[in-house]
Structure formats: structure tokens, C-alpha cells
Write a structure and sequence with these properties.
With about 850 residues, this protein is α/β, with parallel strands linked by helices. The protein folds into 4 domains: about 5-230, 3-Layer(aba) Sandwich (Rossmann fold), CATH 3.40.50; about 240-440, P-loop containing nucleotide triphosphate hydrolases (Rossmann fold); about 490-580, no CATH class; about 610-820, Orthogonal Bundle (Hypothetical protein af1432). About 35% of the residues lie in helices and about 15% in strands. The strands form 7 sheets. The protein has an 8-stranded mixed β-sheet with strand order 4-3-5-2-6-7-1-8, sandwiched between helices. A 6-stranded parallel β-sheet has the order 9-14-13-10-12-11, sandwiched between helices. It has a 5-stranded mixed β-sheet with strand order 16-15-19-17-18. A hairpin with a 2-residue loop joins β24 (about 745-750) and β25. α1 packs across α4, α23 runs antiparallel to α24 (about 645-655) and α23 (about 620-635) crosses α29 (about 805-820). The longest helix has 20 residues, at about 805-820. The chain starts with 5 loop residues before the first helix and ends in a 6-residue tail after the last helix.
């Protein structure tokens, strides 16, 4: 039991006492919850600190991982910073031994250290596209060989917090389906989900497999005790006068002029728009007006700035910026405006959860739940006695405004005007707002919107996603429809000097600061339009199978999937530090300074853990991995892993017996430093980069086949096969393999039928004998001698254990292997 109360715990973290609903959430064991709390009432602190408190008072029944899922990356940075501050504050006061750590997962920034320690309490804060894609075994922005690791960790022993669910669209339905599947299929430890929003309907969570649980899902909302707290009533009753903006504001030029006229010196004005293009055009017009290009502009600027020549600072915020430029946003938002004030032109990136307040808010019409969230950015803490909100009906970009003037705004054009929403959604919102003159929380009617989930993940989809093997044409299952609404499917673009022939194979992977999210359709258009030199634009993407950078031109863009990283020449343009992604910009892009720690991309033939800075024998490495998995299992005794313990220990000890194969030993010995002489020792590690004489050789396949022939269980064989993520459910040859000399001999991943795997002494009472490898299991169906195929064995194992549990066991073996490889204890 804790030696202090939750109130003292909460105050130590935040310097505030908790609201009553926050106490209630922390007082109960972790279970799935629906949390309906107004904007500005501390939902983030409620979720994070309730989980930390449950760790303190009931660790054995509390999930080790808190997965905080947010629809936008600007919310991720803010939530991460808050969580880290709360953890630091707790360590320095009431909990000096607090071992929880906070990590980030979003486009261009993936902190992977947390994956190595499944036994440690961890807060993972990320965007919904990054987190949901990982939970579906198709992680955006990371190597495909790591997909199963995140899949295992994000579905076992975890609590998901889905915040601002009104913005999640299809991702919301995926979150409910995944929670249903975790309960149906089974996981190790506890797995629950908290859904948070200021505008929430229980019906939004009603999906085909979750509807039975929905009726029993507890709802947490404000109670009379909360309303008696003056701190909270100040927030929810903060004054916000609401009015419809003039018709001229529908266009970027009219909106800029209106914003200029309404802005008050010394205050912050926030303009929230629906589309990046409209935000960029409004920003450019406002800057042009303030720049004093005409006498009238200079006079207006002096008038707005209180008679001085000073003008307010104007900032543009949207999702299509590199982190290099975004880095200063949070600090800017937390600073007080300069004497002339500040105007922020933003898209939905600031719509919800961002701790920023303005005395004047101008917003495009959006679905009612989204508009309510935007209202929360005005007079957020009740700091002004008066504040104003204006909403703009049917907002247009410049091009759409030209179409409207020619009266050809038909059904197709109406759909484009409404993007990223539906015309009907805007109609319903306008009908509500037309009857309102106040945007304070207590004056807003409850939302009646229905769920906007259009694609629903089914059990068969989940089963198919367990297999990470590309199909015969090189494609993967597309999960974007389950992750995002609004057709938001972004690639990540970095600008570099790439040369005419593209980047060399050993080009370091782009670091997070370089990567700009760009809609796939927008990038395709960019490639189709010639550069200033008149030549077609070319991009480059990594091909892990061939270990090279592939050329991408406009006709290839249909194959791009969300999260793909692309390199493009800096001279091709397409980006401006002030405007972000700008396909009209032809200026050479300022490149982000390189980071010394950047690593090359990993290919199918690469084996970075086998080529470290040291040399180590197979015996010593195997024993150290076995010791590491034993340490992990002793820390996870509450998860019910006992039945799998012996198989895990056996797999850890024998996972690398395939390294005894002559092909692998030959490669490692080529990498030995001058003068090194290991004698007849079988090696597991040697420094230097080497390629096998047989293309695509995978030692883990040799391990798995050898273990099957020695009578090991299917689970031991699978764990040996999958410990690098490159051999899992299926075994098949790859293009470019060296064929055996014997006619008709089977081969796959560099292993040939009849290869001799030598005996391996691993220092235990059951040494592994030498075997002649038989690739009969790679064939489908049952062999003439009655042997079951690899695919049949492994799919049966998957179905018996369940996809989540099997992936978790896979993750434990990989964590033990990598930890032992990073910090070896005995080397040569």
C-alpha cells in the first residue's frame, strides 16, 4: 500500500489537488472506461496519474504499458512533456523509486528503447496512425522486421487511452474492435481501453464485435461534487460570445482582412481552418496586408497596433511541417504575446487538447463535435471577462472561390468544399450554431452526431495481418482504411542531395527532424509536375529485399503506402520553412543538418546484431540470451507465462544454432580483425559488415529446421525462426537466390536441402547433434512421409495460442537476444 493519499500524490505531480472525477478514476482497478469530461478539465492528468497511482497501489493487476493515443502530433509533444514532468515531480518527492519512463511514437520520431524492456512500466505517447498501425502489425515508419515486436507489446499487458475520440474517425472503430479481439482471442496480463472526449456518444463505440461489451462499459463524467469546485466551474462557464462571421470570410482574402480588423493589440487571436491550402493562403494574405505593400495597408496596420508601426507576429501551423521547424511551436504557444499581439493561423492540429487560449477565435465550420473542441481554445481557463468566437460557413480556398463565382459548384464541388468533412456534417453543425449566441460549455447542446466509422476491422483481417510476408507481387495488406478517416494517407518526405543516380545503399536513414508528412495524392501531383529545369521529378524509397534505394516517379505513386519514407533532391523544391509543404515552391529546400548517429536502412540480407564491435562465441552468446530471458520471465510472473517458460528458455538457448552453418561461419570469420584467431570455436558475433556467399541466407531458418528435426516443439522452432522478424509463418525462396547444384533440390533463404548443420555444444546437459537439413516443411500440405508443413504447424500454433500471445512470446525472445547483444559479458 502507498504511504500517502492520492490527493498528495496528485499534488506532488501537478501542484494542484485533483477533481472528484480524477479521484474516482484512480480509485478503481483498471478496466475499460468511457470518459466524458469537458475541455480544459484535466482529462490527460486524470488518465496518466490514475494509471501511475494504480501501479503504486496494485502493480500486479495494473498493465505495465500505458499507450496514450492521440489524433495529432502536436498533442503528442504536449502530452509527452506533461507526462515526463509529472514523473520527474513524483520521483523528486513522494516516489523516489518510480521506474516508469515516457517514450514517443509519431511520424519521424520513434523511440525504440522501450521495446527492449517489456517488464518495465512504460508510457508510450503517439499519434493514432503510428500506434494503431503498430497494433495491427503494420507499423508505419519502422522497418517491417520490427512490426511483430510492437504488435506484441501494444496488445498485451497494456492500457490504451484514446483521447479526443471525436477526431479518430475509422481509428475509433479499430480501437473498439481491437479491444473486443483482445478479450476474445486472449492476451497475457490485462488489456483495457479508456476512450476520452468532451463530446462523446456511447453509440460511437458500437462496432460489430464490441457491441456486447458496450452496454456494460462504465461511463465517467462530471458529478455534483465536481461542479462544486470553483476551479472547474470557472473553466466550464467561461464567457465566449458566438456569432457567424461575414460572408466575405469564406475566401482566404476576406478572412485575412476580417482577422486583421478584429485582432486586439496585446492579445492572441486564433484562426482554425479546415484545409492546409486555405490556411496557407490566409497566412500569405495576412502577411501581405501587414507588410505595408500599400498606404492603406500601412495605415490599417498602425491602427490595429495602437497607432505604432508594430504589427502582430503571424504564425502558420499545420500538419505538413518538418519537426525541425515545428520544434519551436510549443514554446511559442506558451509564451505571452508581444505588445502588438499574436495571430495564429492553424488547421486541426490545434483543434483539441492543445493547451492554448485566445481572446478571439475564428473557426471554419466543421462537424459539431469538432467545433466544440475548437471553442475550447477560446478563453480556455476563464482568464478574460469577455471573449469572442466567430464561425465561417462553407469555407473556400481561392480556387474554390473562383468556381463558386462561375456557379458550377455542383455535387462534386460541394464535396470538395466540405473536405475533409462531409457536406451533410457541415449542414447539421450550421443548423445548431445558427441558434446559438454563446459558446461557453454550459450553453452548448449535446452532440447528436452518429459515428463516422466507415471501415471496420474483422477477426479474419486481424488473423491475416499476423503474417508479415509480402505477397508474390511485393505488396502488403493496406491498413490505412482502418487507421485514418478523411483519406489522410501520408508519406514522409526528406530533402537531400541525392544525385542523378540516387542515394548509395549505405545512405543513413533520414532522422525525424527531416521528415515532412505529405498526402500521397499531393506527392503524386508533385512528381507529375516538372521542376524548373523542365525534367520530371524523381524520389527514392528503400527496398529492404534488394538492399538499395528504388527510384519512384509519378506512375509508381499508386504503390506508395502510408508511412513510407521518401528522399527527394533539395533542388526539386516543394517546401518552405514558413509555409511547410508547398508544392508550388520551386526554391531549393534548406536541408536539415545530419545527425551523427544515423544508421543505414536494414535490408533482408542484413544482420546488424551479428556484426557488432566485438567477437563472441556461439556458446557464450547463447548462454547470455538464456540468462536474459530468465531475468525477464522472473519479472513477469504475474502474466501467466508459466506454461511457456520451458519453451522460452529452450528457444533462447538454441535460437542461434543455425549460425553453426558453414556459410555463416565463413562470413563471420571474414569480419574478424587482423590477428584474431578463435581457433575451432563456433562464432555468433564478429565485427565488420559482411555479405554471405549465398544471397538471402538466414541463419534463423537453419536454426528452426534443425530444431524441428531434433524433436523440439513447434513453439521453440517458431521462436528460433522469428527472432529477427525475417522468417515467420511462411518459408519460400526469394528472387536472386543461388540454386543448389543438385537438380530439383529444395532451397529457401539461402538454406539448401542436404546442408549439414554441425553439432553445437551449448554447455547444457542436452547438446544439439549435427543434422542434415531437410526443407520438406517448406512445401504446402502433408509430405509423402507424413511430415506436416511449416505453414500448417505455425498457423495451428497461431490459432492455439492466439495472435496476441504468440507475438508477445516472439517479442520476449527478441528483447532477450538484443539486450544480450548490446551488452555482452564475455567476448573474445
Amino acid at each position: 500500500m502507498a504511504s500517502h493519499s492520492f490527493d498528495a500524490f496528485f499534488h506532488a505531480a501537478t501542484s494542484h489537488t485533483p477533481y472528484d472525477y480524477q479521484r474516482h478514476l484512480a480509485s478503481e482497478p483498471v478496466q475499460s472506461h468511457l470518459i466524458h469530461i469537458p475541455t480544459g478539465a484535466g482529462k490527460t492528468a486524470a488518465a496518466v496519474l490514475a494509471w501511475l497511482w494504480r501501479l503504486e497501489v496494485d502493480r500486479n493487476n495494473t498493465p505495465r504499458r500505458l499507450i496514450y493515443c492521440l489524433p495529432m502530433r502536436v498533442l503528442v509533444e504536449q502530452t509527452r512533456d506533461n507526462a515526463r514532468e509529472w514523473v520527474r515531480n513524483l520521483r523528486s518527492s513522494v516516489l523516489p523509486g518510480l521506474d516508469a519512463e515516457v517514450f514517443t511514437v509519431m511520424g519521424g520520431e520513434v523511440e525504440e528503447h522501450w521495446e527492449l524492456y517489456p517488464e518495465k512500466p512504460t508510457i508510450v505517447v503517439g499519434t493514432q496512425d503510428m500506434l494503431l498501425s503498430r497494433a495491427l502489425n503494420r507499423g508505419y515508419g519502422i522497418t517491417r522486421y520490427k512490426w511483430p515486436v510492437d504488435f506484441g507489446l501494444l496488445n498485451n499487458d497494456c492500457l490504451w487511452v484514446c483521447d479526443e475520440v471525436q477526431l479518430m474517425r475509422s481509428g475509433l472503430g479499430t480501437s473498439t474492435q481491437m479491444q473486443a479481439f483482445r478479450e476474445q482471442v486472449g492476451v497475457f496480463g490485462r488489456a483495457a481501453t479508456w476512450w476520452l472526449s468532451a463530446t462523446m456518444h456511447r453509440s460511437w463505440l458500437e462496432t460489430v464485435d464490441f457491441k456486447q461489451q458496450l452496454g456494460d462499459l462504465p461511463l465517467l463524467s462530471l458529478e455534483p461534487a465536481d461542479f462544486a469546485d470553483s476551479r472547474l466551474t470557472k473553466v466550464i462557464r467561461a464567457a465566449k460570445k458566438l456569432a457567424r462571421a461575414p460572408e466575405a470570410c469564406r475566401t482566404p482574402d476576406g478572412l485575412a482582412a476580417f482577422t486583421m480588423a478584429k485582432h486586439t493589440t496585446g492579445t492572441q487571436t486564433l484562426v482554425v481552418l479546415n484545409r492546409v491550402e486555405r490556411a496557407r493562403e490566409t497566412f500569405e494574405t495576412l502577411n501581405r496586408l501587414y507588410s505595408g505593400q500599400s498606404g492603406r495597408s500601412r495605415a490599417r496596420a498602425r491602427s490595429v497596433a495602437g497607432g505604432s508601426d508594430a504589427v502582430p507576429e503571424v504564425h502558420l501551423l499545420h500538419s505538413q511541417f518538418r519537426p525541425y521547424e515545428r520544434r519551436g511551436w510549443q514554446a511559442m504557444l506558451q509564451q505571452s504575446p508581444k505588445p502588438a499581439g499574436r495571430i495564429i493561423i492553424s488547421t486541426q492540429v490545434i483543434e483539441a487538447g492543445v493547451d492554448v487560449s485566445s481572446s478571439l477565435l475564428i473557426t471554419d465550420l466543421a462537424p459539431y463535435s469538432s467545433v466544440v473542441q475548437r471553442f475550447g481554445r477560446c478563453n480556455r481557463a476563464g482568464e478574460w471577462e469577455e471573449a469572442s468566437v466567430f464561425w465561417v460557413d462553407r469555407p473556400l480556398t481561392r480556387n474554390q472561390a473562383r468556381l463558386a463565382k462561375t456557379e458550377i459548384l455542383g455535387e462534386k464541388e460541394r464535396s470538395e468544399v466540405a473536405l475533409p468533412y462531409d457536406w451533410e456534417e457541415l449542414d447539421r453543425a450550421a443548423g445548431i450554431l445558427n441558434d446559438l449566441d454563446s459558446a461557453k460549455s454550459t450553453d452548448l447542446p449535446k452532440s447528436t452526431e452518429q459515428s463516422a466509422v466507415s471501415w471496420v476491422l474483422r477477426r479474419r483481417d486481424l488473423t491475416d495481418l499476423f503474417d508479415t510476408t509480402r505477397d508474390l507481387l511485393g505488396y502488403d495488406l493496406d491498413i490505412s482504411r482502418f487507421v485514418r478517416g478523411y483519406e489522410e494517407r501520408d508519406v514522409l518526405v526528406a530533402w537531400r542531395e541525392v544525385g542523378d543516380t540516387g542515394p548509395p545503399a549505405q545512405t543513413p536513414a533520414p532522422n525525424r527532424d527531416e521528415l515532412c508528412p505529405v498526402p500521397i495524392w499531393g506527392f503524386k501531383d508533385f512528381l507529375e509536375n516538372p521542376s524548373d529545369a523542365g525534367a520530371s521529378r524523381v524520389a527514392w524509397t528503400w527496398n529492404g529485399l534488394d538492399g538499395s534505394w528504388d527510384r519512384v516517379v509519378a506512375r509508381d505513386a499508386e504503390r506508395l503506402r502510408p508511412g513510407v519514407i521518401l528522399l527527394i533532391g533539395a533542388a526539386e523544391g516543394g517546401y518552405d520553412p514558413q509555409r511547410g509543404w508547398d508544392p508550388q515552391s520551386t526554391a531549393t529546400v534548406l536541408m536539415v543538418p545530419p545527425t551523427p548517429s544515423e544508421d543505414p536502412e536494414e535490408g533482408m540480407d542484413d544482420d546488424p546484431l551479428s556484426c557488432p564491435y566485438y567477437t563472441q562465441s556461439l556458446l557464450k552468446h547463447s548462454r547470455e540470451v538464456e540468462a536474459e530471458i530468465d531475468r525477464i520471465l522472473r519479472s513477469l510472473e504475474n502474466l501467466g507465462l508459466g506454461e511457456c517458460r520451458s519453451d522460452l528458455l529452450s528457444a533462447a538457448l538454441r535460437h542461434d544454432i543455425g549460425k553453426a552453418h558453414p556459410i555463416f561461419q565463413q562470413t563471420l570469420r571474414r569480419g574478424l580483425p587482423p590477428g584474431a584467431n578463435p581457433g575451432s570455436l563456433l562464432l555468433a558475433k564478429s565485427p565488420g559488415f559482411g555479405r554471405h556467399d549465398r544471397p538471402h541466407f538466414r541463419h534463423e531458418l537453419a536454426s528452426a529446421l534443425g530444431l524441428l528435426q531434433m524433436g523440439s516443439s513447434d513453439l521453440v522452432a517458431y521462436l528460433a525462426a522469428c527472432h529477427h522478424g525475417k522468417v515467420r509463418l511462411s518459408i519460400r525462396a526469394l528472387p536472386g537466390e543461388l540454386k543448389p547444384e543438385a537438380v530439383g533440390a529444395k532451397f529457401a533463404r539461402g538454406v539448401h536441402d542436404g546442408d549439414v548443420l554441425p553439432a553445437v555444444d551449448l554447455g547444457d546437459s542436452n547438446p544439439t547433434p549435427g543434422v542434415i537439413l531437410d526443407l520438406e516443411p517448406m512445401l504446402l500440405g502433408r509430405s509423402p512421409n507424413g511430415q506436416t508443413s511449416w505453414l500448417d504447424r505455425m498457423t495451428r500454433l497461431r490459432d492455439v495460442l492466439g495472435v496476441f500471445r504468440l507475438a508477445y512470446l516472439e517479442t520476449l525472445i527478441r528483447a532477450a537476444d538484443e539486450r544480450a547483444s548490446r551488452t555482452p559479458k564475455e567476448t573474445l
